[in-house]
Amino acid sequence: MHAFADFCAGWFVDYMAARHAKAVTVDRFERFTRGTSRQTWFVHYHDGQGAARSVAIRTDHPAGAGDPTSLDQEFAIYDRLGRLGLPTARALYWEDDPALCPRPFFVRELIEGSWQVAGYAAPGDEGARVRLAAAQEHMRALAAVHDADWRAVGFASILGAPEDEADAARFYVRRQLALLAGFGAEPQPLLAEVARVLLESAPPAGRVSLCKGTNGLGEEVFRDGRLVALSDWEEAWVGDPASDLAMVQGFTEAIVIGGETVWDLDRALAFYNTRAAVPVSIENVRYYQLARMFGRLVMFAYTTTVVRRSADATVRQSWTATEVQHSVKRVLAHALGLAEGPDPALFEELNQSVEMPAQESLP
Amino acid sequence: MIHPTCGEVLATVAASFTREIVPELTSIEARSSAATIEHLLRHVMLRIEEEGEVLMRDVARLDGLLSQAADWLDESGSGAAGALRAVLAHERADLWTLSRQGEEALRLRGALVTVQGQLDALAEDWSRDEGYRALRSAIGAYIGAQLMDEARLIGPAFSGRGPRR
Q: What is the maximum alpha-carbon separation in chain A?
């Protein structure tokens, strides 16, 4: 097969013929622009029998992923998720033959839907009801993740696991520090200070569960207002479910209907606790708000090494290593009383992309 | 000074990019990358102007903080100050370039992280000691001051200037 410098429609046609002995025609080969840690390509094609098919290709950026976990770990996560019956895209196959691809990748189902929720940005009570329904849908999905039997499908063999509930928070911090040591980040006194505080104040978990990591608006797939696929599992770990409630993008923000606040973090947690087998405490959520930011800073310290070692790193990775990393440092330093925090409006700003001007009308 | 300066040249690059290239872009992927590039160009222009001052101030702060740490470690009799004294006695290369300033700041930050680990190990016996607490407090103050200096290179380039991606 021809050598291709990067993934493209021509490569996919050649690959399907060489690896899978299928003559396909590609209708669309698109890159998902919001992804920062890795690349996602959407491929819509017709197979040899003329049937329309769609898949997603996940691969590292040319200079490497933006987070310190490996692509094959992500594939293994999706593989096990498929066996848990959670709403996720099924992992189909892994490929790393250098003669057949620009770099290793895996293929998963492409679930029809969008990270955007129809009507989410609508003004007034109408939009508020859409946001409330989406947020509740997300809480139900998180509860299902946390109730899932992670031991049965061997998540500990790929992610490790704390010794018990009492060890969960320290396990999280140790895991981050091990990653940090592993990729040789530059010394950061702030990270050392935060790690100390987290280890000193580590709370026991209510239970040890599979935790999704990155979650919320922009990370999951919705269709007709229903959450049809939980996506973006690169920060997944086995530990305290409170960690997922601590960093929910968008879906724990206040919602007002008819002049009454019907949703915020406390109400989201109460709703979650009516759905999950074991409740999560607000104290643990507060702890993991700091711990997860610490994890993010470790991730961005890794992204910095990617940018430093290769000009093939993306401009998105440069942005992550500059503004985003700085913002997370400020949040952490503020939490420890060491510096001013960033403007609270900044995080909504960071989440905006050129394709979503409608979101600017959110209250 | 060589004219036009780096900042002036980059300003024309950024303006031309926004005026002549960005309107021609049709795909979301290209527009998204262009948005990121515009932000990063502003960031680089700010760093050209201000990073040298930020780094030199960082080096000066770290010199003072590490000296304070070495003094306390000596007083505590923990025997942990030797390596730190060696770091401080290291003959400093000239700091004429940004890269050398950055390397020196990193070298000293590495020494500070080592000190933080030493203090953690001594906490059980010394955490109520006035000097220990003053040193911990000084480390916190350093982290905050360095971060707010760094903020000068970030905020004006990005905040309120549109989607980043």
A: 64
The interface residues of chain B toward chain A in range 97-156, judged by CB-CB distance below 8 A, are 106, 109-110, 112-113, 116-117, 120, 139-144, 147-148, 150-151, 154
Candidates B143, B159, B163; nearest CB to A193: B143
Query: What pLDDT is attached to residue A356?
Result: 58
Residue A9 has a CB neighbour count (10 Å cut-off) of 17
**Contact between chains at A33 and B32 (C-beta distance less than 8 A):** yes
What stretches of chain A show up as alpha helix (H) in DSSP?
Answer: 9-20, 71-84, 124-147, 155-159, 168-183, 189-200, 242-246, 265-275, 282-309, 315-319, 325-335, 346-351
Q: Which residue of A has its CA nearest to B161?
A: A349
A358 touches chain B (CB under 8 A): no
- pLDDT number for residue A35: 67
Distance from CA of A314 to the nearest CA of B (A): 9
DSSP state of A63: T
* Mutation site for B-interface testing, chosen from A40, A186, A198, A315 by largest number of B Cβ within 10 Å: A315
Q: What pLDDT shows up at residue B59?
A: 97
Give the model's confidence band at A1: pLDDT under 50 very low, under 70 low, under 90 confident, else very high: confident
pLDDT tens-digit map of A269-282: 999 999 999 999 99
Question: In whole angstroms, what is the distance from residue A227 CA to residue A246 CA?
Answer: 20
Residue A337's contacts (CB-CB under 8 Å, 6 or more residues apart) are: B140
Average pLDDT for residues B93-110, to the nearest whole number?
A: 94
CA distances from B104 to A21, A46, A321, B109 (A): 57, 58, 20, 9
- How far is A113 from chain B, CA to nearest CA, in Å? 18
Angstroms from A329 CA to nearest CA on chain B: 8
Pick from A245-254, B26-35, B75-84, B120-129: least confident: B75-84
pLDDT at residue A46 above 90?
Answer: yes
Tell me the pairing of strands A105-109 and A91-95.
antiparallel
Q: What is the pLDDT of residue A363?
A: 29
| Average pLDDT estimate for B58-73 | 96
Which ipTM value was assigned to this complex?
0.95
Residues of A in contact with B117 (CB under 8 A): 192
**CB distance from A343 to chain B under 8 Å?**
yes
Residues 6+ apart with CB under 8 A from A240: A165, A168, A169, A172, A203, A205, A206, A208, A209, A211, A280, A284, A288
List the single residue in A with minimal CA-CA distance to B35. A354
